[in-house]
Amino acid sequence: MSEQNLFKVTIDNITIEVPAGTTVLQAARLIGGQVAPPAMCFYSKLQGSGGKCRTCLVEVSKGSEKDPRPMPKLVASCRTTVMDGMEVKNITSEKVIDARAGVVEFLLLNHPLDCPICDQAGECHLQDLSFEHGKSETRYEFQRRTFKKHDLGKNIQLHMTRCILCYRCVFTADQLTNKRVHGILDRGDHAEIATHIEKSLDNEFIGNVIDVCPVGALTDKTFRFKNRVWFLKPMDAHRDCPTCSGRVTLWNRGDEVYRVTARKDQWGEVEDTPDGKPGWICNTCRFDKKETADWIIEGPREISRQSVIAQGHYAGKIGTTKPNETFAAINDGRKPHLLMDIHDESEVNQPNIHLGKIQGPSHGDTFNTNNTHKA
Amino acid sequence: MGVKLLLDKANVPGIRSYEVYRREGGYRSVEKALKEMNPESIVEEVKKSGLRGRGGAGFPTGMKWSFIAKPEGVPRHLVCNADESEPGTFKDRYLMEFLPHLLIEGLIVSSFALGSNDTYIYIRGEYAWIPDILEEAINEAKANGWLGKNILGTGFDCNIHVQRGAGAYICGEETALIESLEGKRGNPRIKPPFPAIQGLWQRPTVVNNVETLAAIVPIINLGGDEYAKIGVGRSTGTKLISACGNINKPGVYEIDMTISVEEFIYSDEYCGGIKGGKKLKACIPGGSSVPILPANLLLKTAKGETRYMNYESLSDGGFATGSMLGSGGFIVLDEDQCIVKNTLTLARFYRHESCGQCSPCREGTGWMEKILNKIEHGKGTIADIDLLWDIQRKIEGNTICPLGDAAAWPVAAAIRHFRDEFEWHINNPVLSQTSNFGLQHYADPIHVPA
Prior knowledge:
heterodimer; A: alpha+beta; B: Rossmann fold; Ubiquitin-like (UB roll); five-stranded mixed sheet; 19 helices
């Protein structure tokens, strides 16, 4: 790629040069940190994905050097390519923050929030998203939608109520397997992932739909209810597999292999193998090789310290010892989201409110109105 | 009596047949276009005419045509959008049912201008009987040498194919229509690329409304400049309005966009007044998705000027005090109609027709319907009104296609102009089940909100 094909793009006042054809989201991921918009449906390894969930909406305050007009609407950063001199506002735009909060609310509207019994909990993108952008309570007071159960065979468990219709699994089946047997049926809020006639998904690479699913809609039946992901130790391992790259992450507890997944990068996407291809793994590696003896262990997998999975596991590279760097240094000079003294902020731990005098079930508002201590 | 360009021959007996249509001067524009003009000059003529898309958005047709990419060796396509599904709009049905040859004629000229050898008519599934009429007209035209190979000895080949949809509102959105035409699920595509660059089977495509393509015929016959003299300002030519609701004479009317809204509703030539001598309460002037207007803002703008039936005048005041001409589905509500119920009906429609691809529309439309249903049945609270407002605000502009906006606007306008009726509904849960809020300050005399 020649020099002329590099475009300058400024995202949240940070300028970066990227090749022409890069999307705003990918440019923002190169900058990293909070600048990268969240993405629930976009998956860089899957062609045609993105644009559907609307969590990655950004404001384009300057179209390009040639045409500096701002774009009238918020655009989906995953499907908008950069122009030279483009200026994008992500977390610096109030409109974006507002719209994103709206999208998160919409996504959670019919989501069952059965995290305590969901196998995805701990590595769920929707959990992260709602933790960062969502509200603590819902304004939805109607019954959440339910679906007729579909059986997708012995390996893959479908929980349609948790699905956010990101279409990732549809693209995966289209692009990785030679014949797609599942898809979206119906339309609108009763659209669902299903096979047209009750049929099991049994292609050799179909297991990857579990890895691409951002929520707990498609989970591993061989791992179902076996353990919580944060109790398991992820280990990089490989084997000589005739059908796939064989590069996986094993999720161990003691010597027992609880599940096998592809290796995922910091955006939750499948990592590339050394030859530059996406490291999708086959069903044999994923579902059948559950013995440590099947694998050559490379070592513990590096897990982001922010992730719940990292809690209390390793004293290795990013360990449990107190870090030397300051919070501001690792956050590129930005202040942390929230730093407060719990004892000042808590509405519950105030000794002067007598709990017995509150009528009915109490919640935050009760304490606010009765709050003589802070008034 | 206004000028009539499209429906002037609609009452001639047997106009549906080729012989009568030809005797009445049909297919003159094809002769003129193919023999005396070239594609560039036709596009130029359409640009001069100032014709704006009749499907709802009002985008200048000549400009749309000039955007089409012309790569070497790649076929281009013209697609006629006959998926007229907007509640309240039925002008295209009338046109196709009674004047099928007018559409075919417009399609041949437009195909020639755009270089489309295979032109498609995508028609909604509910219009079950119309494809047969169109196919008969196409066969007649083919038998008489207006379609097929080497039309009029000019070397231009053109075939028109009629494709039936399965009946989905979303397939009226041009990229969803293209997806459906390709045999896929009717989900709107993410733009860019626009259809003019990559449309049907990744080829450059223009999608136009039935009425737009029919209007090409008078433009070629009269010339663009003559056509532009009809109408006013940037609203040139004539527009078909499908009037329905509580009026004496519902039906499809051709207007020349210089008449006032008041004249359109009350004159005997058009709607003939409100049915049963009742008073006008509100009106949705351009198909269900445009903002509803109370009577006082419908007849006069917020500045106190008379409102006319054209693009500019109806949208005067933006969405705060104006609306849109849209697709021309003119729905009139009299004093006995309930705005809450009307809004609920529209919200239910959009919930049902949302494709479910992007989250704000999929989840938001259903939520709005449930809240409106609650209010309508006397179980609402005042906070629900603000919640509705917040939901519509978060849907609008954040979706892939305009269906999200179309679902949000009616709710927003109803709350903006009729908030007191919503409050009355909530405060009088029993009374609101049997009686109506009435007119209050919506109807005459004109009341201009501060």
